Each structure stands twice: as structure tokens, then as C-alpha cells.
Amino acid sequence: MILLEVEGLRKHFGPEPVLDGVTLDVRPEHKIGLVGPNGCGKTTLMRILAGRGEPDAGTVRAHGTTRIGYLEQQPEIAARRTVWEEAEDALVHLVDMARQAEEAAHAMSRTDDPAEHRRLAARYDHLQHELHHHDAYHLDHKIERVLAGLRFPADVYRQAVNSLSGGEQNRLMLAKLLLAEPDLMLLDEPSNHLDVGATEWLENYLAETSAALIVVSHDRYFLDKVTNRTLELFRGTVDAYPGNFSAYWRQKAERLEVERRTYEKQQLEIAKAEDFVRRNRYGMKHAQAEDRQKKLARIVPVEPPREIAIPRMAFAEVDRSGDIVLRAERLSKAYDRPLFADLEVDVERGQRWAVMGPNGSGKTTLLRCLLGQIEADRGQATIGHGVEVGYFDQQLAALDDAEDVVDAIRPEGREFLFQQRRDLLARFGLVGDTASRKVAQLSGGERCRAALARLAAAGANLLVLDEPTNHLDLWARDALEHALGQFNGTVLMVSHDRYFVDRIADHLLVLDDGRVRVFEGNYSSYLSLAAGRSVDTPVEKEASKKRTTGPVKADKPTRSDRAKRRFPYRKTAEIEADIHQRESRIQELHRLLGLPETYRDGAEVRKLKAEVQHQTEAVAELYEHWEEAAELNW
Questions:
Q1: Is the pLDDT confidence value at 538 over 50?
Q2: Residue 59: left (phi > 0), alpha (psi -120 to 50), or beta?
């Protein structure tokens, strides 16, 4: 059954279309990640699918019984209700269903007509089935479970909605959507305003729900955990990929390689033919030139590669600092409650530290105490010899709204020529007239890139980054990760992006309930350690006493801990042979696509490209099968 069918959607906000023939369908088993660069039209598409916006052309058809729920980025909310009342409002349909069941039972007891009794009994049974399916006899428990999972403490339940912050109101709207249990959820950045714990709870909830999903998110861990299909929106159209975000990222690279090679070779053939025609149109070979011209006219052009530009972010080589870049000694801070106490840690040159913890745990306060921007209640923080600090503020306050972007990134006290600044902005994806616009005119993503460019211009050897991936799309995040990976200085950062932390950090400071734990390793190491031993167990090590020795590995799971199989049993050797056979076929297809005669036959090009895509998708699934077999076949 198709829950939602979309065909030929078009939408313009200017001369260039935002949506230019979007076609897709959603089935009950689909959990779709919708990805694409900032500004490509993801929110526009989601609003049209939800019936909140009108397309210029095309159709959106929902199955007659499909219930669609939509989580938008800027929700409207009833201010007069309490938090509990607002959440309870999502269950009105279940309360109404329970009333109908009660009425049907009462009517059955009063009728003497056998046919009417059978009809009422069938209706009663249907209603009871639906009520049991939705656990409608434990509505209070359902509400408590969802509110608690999204980190609403019990003392907030009777609080007025208009007293909540904007982020809390967004979380309440998410809670209402989950409680309503629609057949299809449209989720636009659902993990915004969630800390890591709440995000992990939401991941598990969505992974287990029977509802279909379309989700827009920049959280790659979230997409990997929740989705089983990926739609890439780019240049106004969508391309479909089987699998989660990681599968998409791998398949996208493989598909791009084929598209690039195919396009470039056809362009070379066309250029050679055009040159021959131009040189011989009126010469002795004019007959051959005319023949070439006719063949050119019959060539079906290959579309340019569907390549999303990745900015070439980079931080320059920086001066060497002392061995100890930052030292905290018995550092403590409290406001209405303790945030951290007696922190002892050394940050050594070249290390990458990430600070993690729930919302409100004091992550930014800790950063600012370490830098001396906020006075600690007790203890001290010392910056080491030869350390130059570059600070990225998540509020992006370092940029002056009134300045041109090219001037706003100029480092203080350093000579930095106009063209150097233009080149630097280009490396961070700010090209063309963007450099001459006022900072106030930039989008959130552009402003974030400008702030990173300013940081790169400063030449600091200690980068202190407070939520640097906010407002960045998936491609810009990947570029920033590569840039920090090549940086020869030291990094201290706060980030809720677990994928980002996993790729960059080699040490973690984890804040929770006034405690600070120090872990050696990245986020995966931390998860492995937490899975193998309670996080409350004092397993952390003082970084001032011992440097990291590598990631911590979790113990091998017992047979009872293993996940259920997704694929049928096969030996890994058999799967490897199948992978080799299909990869050999892909190489052969690439060779065929590279032949000049192939480009003269548009139908053959399309056929070969379709088979490349099919074989690539099959290989991606075989690798997942192999990973499962390698884990479970022992």
C-alpha cells in the first residue's frame, strides 16, 4: 500500500525553481531521511507534503485513511494550557474512540435485533482492537513516558505552556506528535533543542514505531539509527538511495564517480567531433564533417554529475605551543546548583577534547572558566606557554552585523590583504557577491562559515569551539571535520553532534549532575565503555596523569546479547564471493561506459547506468549482510 504519492511537484520563489519535478512515494515500511544542502528546499517540500503549502504544479495524493502528522521548525502552540493538557490534547481521538466503544456496548445491551447486534458487536470488537493497539487504557502512562523521554521533569507538567522557552515548546510539539501516533510522521529537524540523552531516546522510539517517517536532520547518528531509505533533494529533484545515511554517503560517492566519468568522456567526444566539423566543414573532408554533424545531433546528452559542492575548509599551519596547553586545578563553579567541582585536567598539545552533557549542565560555562572569561568559584585554570586562543562563540557574536563579510573576518593586529580574505572565504564556501554583503544579510549557515573563516584567519594554535556545527549542512560538517583533522594545533570543543565528536575527539569531558568525568577516546569508545560498565562506576581517568592509549573496546557480547538476524544465514566466504562478482561486473560496466561508441547510443548509456546503480545497491546490501554474518556467525 502507498501511504503518500507525489508526482511532478514544482515550486518557484524566484526565477529558479526550488522544486522542479519532485516525484516520490511513501509506503508503510519506509523510514526516509530527506537530505540536501542548506537552501535546497527541504522545508518547502515538507510543508507541501503536510498540506501547509501549495505547489505551483504537481500532485500530492494521500491514501484515504492515512493520518499524517507534521513537526515544523516554528510551531504554533496554545499558550493558555498546561504542559500536561497540551500533551493530552494529542490523544483526543483515543478518548473519542473509547466513548464510541462504550456507546456500542450500551447499544448492544439494549437491542433485540440479531443483525443489529452482530453489527454493533463487530464495531465494538474493531474499536477494542484499536484501543488495545494504541494502549488507550493507559493514557497517563503514555503521556508520562513521552514527556519524560523528552526530558520534561514532573514538576513542569502543570506549568503553563506560555512559560516555556522556545526550545521547550518545540519539544512539547514533538511529544504531541509522538503521542498522536499518525500513520506518517513528517519531522523537520526533530532533534533540535534535544540533548544527547533525549535524542537517543527519540532514536529508539522512532526505530521501534510502526509509523512511516520522512525526517529532515543534520544529525548523522540520528539518520543512521532511524532511517532505512534516503532521498537526496538537489537541483529541484530527488534521487533515492536504499539504506541509512552511511549507506547513502557511500553509494553517493560511487554513483558520482560513474556520473563524472561518463559525463567527462562524452564531453570529450563531443568536443573532438565539433572540432573536426569546424576544421573540415568546407574542406576536402566536408562529407565526413557533415556525417559527424548528423551524429552529434543524434547524441543524447548525459546530465552533468549531480555533485553537491563541498567547501575546501582548511586551517593554516600554526606555531608550536608548550606541551601543556591548558591546565585546570580543583576548578569548581556553581550557580543555583553545582555545575562542576574539583576538576583536575591537563590538555596537552595536539589533543582534541570534547565537552558533552545534558542541556543546562554547564558546558559553555566550563569552556569560559577554562579560558578565564568567567571567574571560577574555586581553583584555577592556566593557559600554557606560547598558546594563542581562537574562540568560536555559538552566538557568533564576534561578527559585526554592520560590516561587509570580507571585512568582518579580518583578524585584529594582523596584515591580511583583501584578496587573501576573499580566497579564505571561498575556502569556507562563501563565494561571489556573498563576500561583499553585510553580515546581517547572511543566513545562519553562511554566518557560521564566516565565523569559522575568521577563526582560521587568526592563526590560533588552540581552537575553542562552542557548537561549531550549528547551522552547517552535512557537507559543510564533513569539510570542517577534514579541516580539523589536518589542523596541527589543539582543539577544545562543545558539541551535541555525536558523529562530529566521534571523528574529531580523542578525549571527552562528560558533565552530569555536577560531576565531570574524563574519558580517553572518542564517542564510540565512550559508548563501548558505558555499554560494558555502568556510567556511574568511577571508570574515568585523570588526564593529567595519563595520556590516551587508544580507544576502549567493549567486551565481546554473549550469545544472548546478539541482535536478531536481518538477513538469512550465509557463510562470510560466500558473501565475499558474491561481493567480488558484483564488483567485477561494476568495473566491466565502467569500462563499457568509457567506450566512445557507447556515447552515441543514449539508450545504451541509460541502460548501463541503471545496471551500475542496481549492482551498487546490491553490493551495499551485501556489505551489511557480511557485517551481520561476521558478528553473529560464531
A1: no
A2: beta
